[in-house]
Amino acid sequence: MAGKTGTSRWLAAGMTAITLALGTVSTAHADASLLNVSYDVTRELYKDINANFIAAYKQKSGESVAIRQSHGASSAQALSVLQGLQADVVTMNQPNDIDLLAEKGQLVPANWRARLPDDSAPYTTTMVFLVRKGNPKHIKDWDDLAKPGVQVVIANPKTSGNGRYAYLAAWGYRKQHGGTDAQALDFEKAIFRNVPVLDTGGRGATTTFTQRGIGDVLVTFENEVSLIASGVGADSFEAVYPSVSLLAAPPVSIVDKVVDKRGTRKEAQAYLDYLWSPAAQEIIAQHHLRPRDKNVLAKHATEFKPIRTFTVEEMFGSWQKAQQTHFSDGGTFDQIIVDKK
C-alpha cells in the first residue's frame, strides 16, 4: 500500500474531482438505515438490488430498512470512508480499497475476505473495449491501443479501480506475450501517450467517450460496455473483446466500526448475504455482471462472451505488490505520467 504521503496525494487527486452521488430511500419511517459506499458504475445495479432487498427483508423480518447509496471512483470512495464517511457497507471494485480500511483505519478486520463466499466477491467481470460504430481504427487487441493516432479513454489508475484494472490488464497482456517488465513499461507509456484525459472514475470516462465524443476506444468493465451497447445510442458504438484480459472480482464488506457504533450490524449482514441469493444473482446477471450462482450463470450463458482471463495474483503476486510497484508514489504509473508530459 502507499505510505502516508502517497495516501494524502491520492486523496487530493481523487477528492478534488470526485462527485459523491447519494441516492436516498426515505428513512422517515424505516426501522434502520444503511449507507452503501460503492464504485461509480454500480448505480443502476444497486438501485435494483436495494429495492428487492428492502421488500425481501420486510417480508422475512417484518422490519423496514432504508438504503442510501454513494458512488464515485472506487479508491477515492475508500479514502472517503477512511476519512470519516459513515459507510455501513462498502462494495468496491478491488480488494485494495477494502484492505486500505483494514490497514490504515482498522475499520474492518484483516481477514475480511473470509467472511463471505467467493472471497467476498459476489460477481466477476473483466476489462473490454467500446469503440465507435464500424470500428474505424480497427481496434482488436491491446496492441492497437499503443498505435500512433489512436485516442484511448481510460480512467485515472491513481483514483479509480477501473483505471487500475485497465492498466494491469495491458501490462499482463504484454508480459504474456513474452515481454519483459521494461517492455511492458514502454507499452504502457505508448498507450498513455494516447490518453487525452484521465477522468477520476469509470463513469466519468464513459461520459467522456460517449457524450463528449472524445476518443476512439474506451477501456472499461464488461458490464459498462454492455450497458452502453444495449442502451440508448447503442447504434453509435460496438463492443470489442481483446484476446485476453484481467479478471475483476469486486469485493464487499461490512464496515465493522460503523455498524457497531450505529447498531446496524444485523441489517448490514443481511444486506450483503442477500447478494448471493438467487434473486440478487439474477439482478446481477441482468446488469451484465457475471454471477457466482452456476444456475443463474448458465441461464445467461449466451450473454457472456467467452474470454481468457488472468488474475492479479497470477500475474503480479498480490494486489499489495501491484499497488506498491505500479501505483504508489514513484511507481511505474508516475514514471508514465512524467514521460507523457
TrEMBL record:
- Which keywords does the record carry? Periplasm, Signal, Transport
**Gene Ontology cellular component list:** periplasmic space
Residues of the signal peptide: 1-30
Q: Where in the cell is it found?
A: Periplasm
Coiled coil stretches, renumbered: none
GO BP annotation list: sulfate transmembrane transport
Supply the InterPro entries for this chain: Thiosulph/SO4-bd (IPR005669)
Q: Name one GO molecular function term.
A: molecular carrier activity
- Coarsely, its chief localization is periplasm
Q: Which family does it belong to?
A: Belongs to the prokaryotic sulfate-binding protein family.
- Would you tell me the protein name for this molecule? Sulfate ABC transporter substrate-binding protein
